[in-house]
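To make this tangible, we now present a fold written out as tokens:
***
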Amino acid sequence: MNTHNSFLISLVLFFTTSAIFSQTAAVCETYEWDENPTSSFNTTAHTEKDVVAFQEKTINEFVLTAEGGFVEYSLIHNIYWLNSNDKIEEYNKVYLPTSATKILVKNKARVITKSGKIIELDDSKILEAKNEETQVNYKYYAFEGVEKGSFIEYYYVIKRYPAYTGASVYLQDGYYKENVSFYLYSPKNLVFSSKSYNGLPEMVKDTLVKDKNLWTVKLDKVEGLEIESQAPYDTALQKVIYKLDKNTANPTKEYVSYGEVTQNVYKSLYPELDKKTAKALDKFIASILKVKGTPSAEEILQIETYIKSNIFVTTAKQQGLDDIDKILETKIAGETGMMRLYAAIFNKLGVKHEIVLTCPRSDVKFDKDFEVYNFLEDYLIYFPKLKLYMEPLSPLSRLGFPSGNLTDTYGLFIKPVTLGDFTSGLGKVKFIEPVNYDQTQYNLIMNVSFDPDDLTTTNLEMDRKMSGYYALSVQPYLHLAKAEAKDEAIENIIKSINENLEIKEKQVFNDGQYDFGKKPLHITAKMSSDAFVEKAGRKYLFKLGDLIGLQQEMYQEKARKLPVENMFERSYNRKLIVDIPDGYQFQNLNSINIDESFEEDGKVQFMFKSSYEIQNNQLIVSVLEYYNQNIIPVAIYEKYRTIINSAANFNKVTLVLNKK
């Protein structure tokens, strides 16, 4: 969802004095490439690399046209040296970004072989295809004559609606680059500001250009950034974000500000309701629950569950989708309409709430110190008295458990404020706290006994409870599944421990539509298996660690460069109760004992602890594990990896069972 599209300022504001805007030719329209660009490239220094970008140039140019329009040109000009067959296969097509909102103005492509032969591609080499999933047609160049050691070069220019409220340009990728640059042009009266991230130098204004504004950032070389496990890769790449800062022809106007967003969001989501709509809303609320006083968290969750089960949200554009009356009648809403419905209900019920705009932290970090609209992608609703968040437009979340990717980051909080008879919105950037680890639990009690006639067969009784994010993907939807699909879903959860389980009995509790958030999803099962014991001569090898299921293991041959980011904090509490066969005993019990933790500022952030005791001829093993931190900086990565690998090490614990 691109919320910022709703907040675009009127372009009329730019055209206050036509005499200010003398027309100059667009750089992108007159751009040409060099006849022999590769003569100075030193490929011998990179023979061990599969691909090198010897040039990546981006030009974004804002232009006031002679007809009084305002457009943006974007030019991409890249040159790649391909030194492996795999890369030739990967780079043999260049996709041209054409659509209803993007016009292809100019494009060229060519191959320069290892021997220096130039093969130019004309428009006859532009092919068309259709994405079978999206049904969208696209165009692309198919390069011909590419051999190992060849260069491919292409550039294209597109014209589009100007994106001046916030845009990102990435200058780093997974491969090595040289001669990387970004140029930002604008008319003299339009002043842009920018901010660079992840070590990229700040953009510099070129004072030698007199007829327009130009800001640039240029790099002689950029090292490739490797993907690492559980790292927020896109957010770690070097990039620049820019926006229109001011118009010298109208210097008092703020063009990109959260103050502007706040008022627009408030006006859009809190329209005055007429008597007919208010009456229909009362009837709708009464059909969900009977409320006396301010609703509790449980009642708000019930409202959310009902709405998400009965009203469909669409991104289609048609009349009535944002009208509360029509929504209640048709049970179909646009995104704005659904937000209006929630806001109207909570206002009716006297529930204090705030609208929050943020973005997924795995895609881009919300910078609390730089106001751009591309941080404002997704809606949350915050209930300050309950200290809970709701993700209203996602059918896959419930109160208290918005997408983890939208927490542990910043957001723009907008709350209604009243001064006398005047009501408006007040906006402030604040931190969105993640859900605490103890609210997301994956707990297990497993009773184990050995078949007296064959100790390689174990009989298992499982009692599993899942809450928070672990239950969120299953519990609210089980009631919708047909018996066969529901049965399969429960079996998959049971067999997540081991595929080789014969399930003899199973039961599921708390699987109703409104159980999430009140009770954990509870599954019990009786099973047998020959997967946990192997006979070795007169001894038996009991794979105790396998009873908790396969665990993640983190390897790191090279020094870690990127932080780890998890979607949500989590905890595990497992108890394994093993009946010791008469006349037998376990050896090497001390291999069970693992105790690893990391403490910071007097608080344990993550830990794994397993221990045991013998009682009444039973081995009782306790396994506690939790992670109280989503974002793991590189400085403490090794501590985190130790905890993760402790669970994997427990997974490998095998006890020796022999006769006394």
Observations:
- DSSP finds eleven helices and 35 strands in the chain.
- The chain has four domains: 49-162, 166-256, 258-432, 437-659.
- The mean pLDDT is 92.
